[in-house]
């Protein structure tokens, strides 16, 4: 069965990834792998919204930021433990995504993309234009949303005190655990009965709605639930780096993550993970080339859009019609 096969693949990948800190003692590799886990969580959930649900949303990084800022503010203002702040921040992200979805999902196609992007920019301007002093710590005036300086010193998971200089190894395994949960959720959606409804709404909404499938209800459900793991990824990002600021709203980061989905394969289970791995390795390899780095990534994306629109995971599927055609001809 496909589900059994996918679960086996996930178990093997998690087991292999768990060996990374044991095989290599390099802190840089382990921390970059942790960042990969965070971005992989975001793109797997974005792929559910964009590739499975057919919702052209550009609000994913805004939801990511909601999770990150909620965690920082809960720790900074209320001194909540991070283990408690993380699920609360994820639930706040679900609430925000429900409100955004209720406003956006009655629209179609590019109008959804434009409105969700406008929501993201509105949140960015709300944060960066917040200059009024809310508190006055020794470091100086602190706006309620942190302003352009963002938040620091809002708490951690306790691994820095417990493990000392090896705290990043514990964060690695936390990130791996969260990614495994996010992929399991994606599998449950794509391989389950709900996945058929989402795909029907994506491919033939008129036929699906004539069969009693409510487009608005199903898409809002997917948009809201996928935001839970997106907010959780944002929360862990803030904790991992012990800081969060408005740079998470950058258009370049949003396009970089969207490229991961395109390169790997939109609507597939493993495509976003493959795309995230390839683009992170490519980005790392081109780090020394300065401005040419962005140009190179842009050329890679353009090449995939033109020559491999189904992404790397679409290669075997693309060959099937040709093979079957030859067999019929023979």
From TrEMBL:
The chain crosses the membrane at residues 35-56, 61-78, 84-104, 111-127, 167-190, 220-239, 251-282, 294-313. Coiled coil: none annotated. Keywords: Cell membrane, Membrane, Transmembrane, Transmembrane helix. One of its GO terms (molecular function) is branched-chain amino acid transmembrane transporter activity. It comes from the Bacteria. InterPro entries: ABC_transp_permease, LivM-like, TAT_signal. This is Amino acid/amide ABC transporter membrane protein 2 (HAAT family). It is a multi-pass membrane protein. One of its GO terms (cellular component) is plasma membrane. It is found in: Cell membrane.
């Amino acid at each position: 069965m496909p589900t059994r096969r996918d679960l086996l693949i996930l178990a093997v990948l998690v087991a292999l990834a768990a060996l990374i800190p044991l095989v290599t003692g390099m802190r840089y590799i382990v921390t970059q792998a942790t960042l990969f886990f965070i971005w992989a969580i975001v793109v797997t959930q974005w792929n559910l919204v964009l590739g499975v649900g057919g919702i052209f949303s550009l609000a994913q990084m805004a939801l990511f930021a909601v999770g990150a800022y909620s965690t920082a503010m809960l720790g900074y203002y209320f001194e909540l433990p991070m283990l408690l702040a993380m699920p609360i921040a994820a639930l706040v992200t679900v609430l925000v995504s429900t409100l955004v979805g209720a406003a956006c999902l009655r629209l179609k196609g590019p109008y959804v993309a434009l409105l969700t992007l406008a929501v993201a920019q509105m949140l960015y301007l709300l944060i960066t234009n917040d200059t009024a002093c809310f508190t006055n710590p020794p470091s100086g005036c602190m706006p309620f949303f942190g302003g352009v300086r963002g938040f620091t010193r809002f708490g951690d998971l306790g691994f820095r005190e417990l493990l000392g200089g090896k705290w990043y190894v514990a964060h690695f395994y936390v990130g791996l655990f969260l990614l495994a949960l996010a992929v399991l959720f994606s599998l449950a959606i794509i391989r389950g009965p709900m996945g058929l409804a989402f795909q029907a709404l994506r491919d033939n909404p008129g036929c699906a709605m004539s069969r009693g499938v409510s487009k608005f209800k199903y898409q809002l459900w997917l948009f809201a639930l996928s935001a839970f793991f997106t907010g959780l990824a944002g929360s862990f990002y803030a904790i991992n780096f012990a800081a969060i600021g408005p740079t998470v709203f950058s258009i370049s980061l949003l396009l970089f993550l969207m490229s991961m989905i395109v390169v790997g394969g939109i609507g597939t289970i493993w495509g976003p993970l493959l795309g995230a791995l390839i683009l992170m390795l490519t980005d790392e390899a081109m780090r020394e080339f300065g401005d040419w780095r962005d140009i190179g990534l842009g050329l890679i994306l353009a090449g995939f859009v033109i020559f491999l629109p189904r992404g790397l995971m679409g290669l075997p599927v693309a060959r099937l019609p040709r093979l079957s055609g030859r067999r019929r001809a023979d």
